Automatic annotation (TrEMBL):
Organism: Dyadobacter fermentans
PANTHER family: BACILLOLYSIN
Chain coiled-coil ranges: none
KW Phosphoprotein (keyword) present: no
NCBIfam families per UniProt: Por_Secre_tail
Protein's recorded name: Zn-dependent metalloprotease
Highest taxon of the lineage: Bacteria
FTP domain sequence ranges: 87-137
Family: Belongs to the peptidase M4 family.
Peptidase M4 C-terminal domain residues: 339-498
Keywords of this entry: Hydrolase, Metal-binding, Metalloprotease, Protease, Signal, Zinc
Domain (Secretion system C-terminal sorting) ranges: 1331-1397
Amino acid sequence: MKHRLLIIPLLLLCAHVSFSQTPKGAIDAFTASTGALPTIDPATGSLSFLRFPAQRALQINGGDAQQKSMNFISQYKTLFAIRDGEDEFRLREQKTDNYGLQNVTLQQTYKGVPVYDGLMKFHYNSAQGLTALNGNFISEIKVNVVPTLAQHEAESIAAGLVTTQQLGKSSVPVKVNKSTLCIFQKGLAQGFNGSKFLVYEVEVRNDADVREFLFIDAHDGQLVEQFKGMHNITRKLYETSVTVANLKWQEGDAFPGTLDQWQQSEVESSGFIYNLMKNAFGYVSFNGGDAAMITINNNPNINCPNANWNGATANYCTGTATDDVVAHEWGHAYTEYTSGLIYQWQPGALNEAYSDIWGETVDQLDGYMDSGESNALRTSCGSSARWQVGEKATAFGGALRDMWDPTCKGDPGKVSDPQYWCANSDEGGVHTNSGVINHTYALLVDGGTYNGQTITGIGLTKAAHIFWRAQSIYMTATTDFAAQADILEAAANDLIGINLQGLSTGTSAPGASGQIITADDVAQLVKVITAVELRSATNCGFQATLAPAPALCEGANAGLAIFYEGFESGLGGFTTSFSTSSAGWVSRQWQQVVAPGGRAGHAAFGIDYQGGNCNTATNQSGIIRIESPVITIPAGTAGDLVMAFDHYIALEDSWDGGNIKFSINNGAWTEVPPAAFIANGYNNVLTSSAAGSSNPLAGQFAFTGTDQGSVTGSWGQSQINLNAAGIGLVPGNTIKFRFEVGTDICGGVEGWYVDDIRVFTCAVTPAVHFAAASAIVNEGEATTVDPSGCLKYVDKMISIGIDKAPTQPVTVTFNTPTGTAKQGATGDYIISPSSVTLQAGSLNTNVTVRILNDAYVEGPETINLSYALNANGGNGYAASTLQNFELTINDDDLPPGNYTEELLSSNFNNGQQGWKAINGGNSYHTWAIAQYSNAGFEDGSPFFFVNSAINNAYILDEILESPVINTSARKNLVLSFRQIWERQVGDFAETGTVEVWDGTAWQTLVTQNEATGNLGSLLGYTSTLTTINIPDAYANVNMKIRFRYISRSEIWWAIDDVKLTAAHSNQILSTVNSGNAARQYLGPNETAVFYDPATGNLMAKIKNLSAHDYGCTTVEIDRAGANGTPWLGSYQVTNKTFKVTPTNNNPAGQYEITLYYNASELTTFTPANIQSMGKTSGTIATAGAANTTLAEVVDSPALTSDYAFTATFNTGFSGFGLSNAPPGAALPVTLVDFEGKNTSEGNVLQWTTSSESNNDYFAIEESTNGKNFTESGRVKGVGNASVTTRYDFTDVDFNKGITYYRLKQVDFDGKYAYSRMIAIDAPSAGNIRFYPNPVQSALDIELPNLQRNWVNARVINASGQEVIVKERAVVQNGRLNIQLGKLPAGIYQVLIANDKVSYRLSVFKP
């Protein structure tokens, strides 16, 4: 069995949350001027952290740190939306820390009453500059601060509640230790916004094994919240009281005396952590005031092994008290007196982690109980004892947690790890999720590579000081992981440059360590925080039990509804009753109470009684009811009849619950069927009697449980269609309702609050509104082809109506839609008509939104509709709700590629996740989410479960159905799930089928029965992974998966981790498809992907870069084959070519086109050869110099081993292919040949043209790699010619080896084209250089190794005229200078010669 060291702390709490509006503008302005980094706490909506840049601490007026802090609050109150006369701060603490730095804590108050954890902490550097502030500000508090209850009354209620809960195993009575009046805000620990209350925070304890913090509403005495204060092991074993008889050792006694090794460790190891905190941090004992550290060992009333801190003593059993475990428990004590972290969710995980951190730090320093251990740096799970927690605890069988790699022990090492715990158990996973913080510390100390970050460890001393400063200065009771990230960075920055005190567990302080935190150390910390994802949101997705419901119409309002009860005057006409068969039943009834959860006014409340000892004498099994008066539905009532009610659910999950019964015309009482609910139906089926429940409602549909991530509920609304099958209410009938709360033998949470019950019809006022607030349409639903034959469409009808006939027709004119979708024939949708008329005989009408199924990969898009109303002098008016409608369009187009798409992933850790149970057969037993302490799947997480091991009279036909999954155009669908199928061979042949909805019918994929045999074991925690391939033909926009179980008194079926994936795999078309071309609509600024209609194989992608509408566009492969074929001149083009034909071509169009080729099509004519994409009017086969354009092409991998070639054109569409011709315009010059060779004068290039048209000049470009070219000279062209023209050029400045050359032929209008490349291999480099080129004035020519000191120089223009002549020009130091400044612009040949050398240079003067 896997043990967990649930070493739990003590805490002070009074949680808070706010949904207030953060003054964003003020924060933005402040941070812009100061450079501060702000953090907004999602649980309060307020500024929770403000850190100023290094070297830019904020200077505040004031004589000391306290005055500066108060002045900051006064000067910058807009940062917090502080209200004068209501929100105030007072000094709570001012101290100088161990580093000599000032820290001030201010306590928030509201009208003089302290706000729990409303602490703002200010941190100053040595120059009294503000470096950071953090904490919580609770805004918009609106509570009555004068308590109705006396303090002693609240204490009595709290003590009574804890007594009835019977939490401890000992017989020691509980007592109230202290209580405080404060403002409490729910949800801060869980990270969500809750309501604010005036409460008494009451600590109830027995100084043994019970310590609870209860928050009692100071007005009505209701329990608002409760948190544990005990810190213990997973098995929840406790110690007892301190007695003289049990005193085994005290200061001054001989050591070890008669103590065994575990008792010795309890004494010595408590001294180790005492010395560590005192020596390194100047903090003396756990309370900072040198309190006695009292330890108790092995009390007879304890079921050992165990270890805990109970708020007064640390307690251990034989075999548990290793040095790290002892220090861990005392770590909880230090936490209680510093940060005061509560013990739930992320704050609780931090509480656990800090105890592990101090326990392991002691273990690495003390040299105690280390025999046979290695403290070497870790390389794998168990490679050494370093970072193992409790490895020497024999009672636990070895280490319980691993800080270096928490996953080695099943804990998360980062927030996104699948081990991250989201369930309510273990106080929200405090012992599991602590792994993230443990890993943070170990990574920071030792370093390593993790989650994409490479970290250099900063060592134990620096890390310990950072974490201690975080704990002792910054953290509050509800600090979460994101806040911890900010706090650690702030703490590290505070310590930069300080010589840190050494770490030691000995009695003598070692003094300064010489360890100094640097900016690089802080950078490593930032990497660690990124690696473990402290600032990332969890994947828990906590949700309220009751989801937001559709808005009600005007007819549901008081005064218009057929029946309305708001419980503001007692219970109105409702009556109460109860039923039970238990003699131990505690009498109770529904009653009127003040509504909880921040709701104004009163509500009816049915308590979920928390008492009972789970034995017959105190059996609390029974039902309490509240019954409505008779409600008469007037004859002639128009419209649908609806019942709605607001409620708040906090009932013991699956054991206790509430549901609704009805009676029509005084007939039998019947449960409201689940199918009748319009919104927020029953959320579960109560545990059956066969599974051990004694609740009279066992096995019925019910509301049960609490909100996720919380021990309470929140308000929501349920709506019931009273005309639905199973109810059938009609005008002229009467109806009554019963709300019933059923409880089992013992245990409870809070209860069921119900308010604003109404029965109504909407047809009572002439109010105009949309029929719904939103809808979703899938592009894949489009099946009708539009007149162009290119687009398919589907018409979505949006209903708008008026509830009652108006006195005059009402004109509804629709406003221009907003949203991300584009309106219009070339966009995503068309809407019509633009206005409608509502009147008698036409109370409802539809607006048609035509959704166009384009070929654009767009993702979800929205259309937002609204309207203006003209009553035309009548009584029609706009309703108060449903005045806007949002239509979401789900795209069905996928980007080309080979990848797996996850379409569904359901692990049920956070509720039903859209799945629904459909109850069949003859019982209420059906699929429900379950989680057991003694059975389940391998990871112990929640799962869907149906149990047929019940009464033989019950026949089950139960369906578990998924939400709708859009699988349109998806292929290679694979369904996988983990299951436990246990059957019993008997007289009923149970079956389990897995089925899929193909759009028209359910198709069976798998059938399981008795012959299948057992698959996994629920009690053995083993499951079977099942994988099923779904035929492509079943893909549709409304696919669903369902599990159907038909059984009678057999065993069970459990399902978890359901996934549906689609493997998207493209092939590239290689064959001619001219007779069946791909057709898509190519609208303005859109991108369309073209697939072969016959095979679905990929062809091309076109991105329209203009506002031009090309309309219906076809793409075809008009020629196929591998590699290249001769084309223009000496160039080649691919054998496979394309033809693109739009309806509306544009000769001056702008577009980007991508052509796809298989690797097998380019084996010899490879991407390395391809330099351009050619486009020829008509087809590539008809290419000529006059009708072909060559564009630069970019190749990239496609579909793993194939190719995509992309080019951009500014022309019309036509034929396309890939070529080795250089990019540019089509050659206006017919180049007969282009050759080159190396000579004594240089690299000589020669070329011949047979015709020229508009030819301005040739630029000679050279390259050493064949890719990157530079211009080396120019030769003037003849312009226009139809005869042979010969050209030559000598390059005298070249490198040794191969030089590549090409000609860039340039027209007079600037258009250009490239020649093919040639290569010249020179045995040595050229010995002449000239520059600059182009030249403005002076041309410098370098002539190294010249055997004469003179040359003759001539400059010749493009007409062959000598414009400069220098005879026997002197060459000084190997350099000749020629002034060209007075020459006109043009290309010039410079001839340099003497009796030994001769050179020809070409220069350009702009």
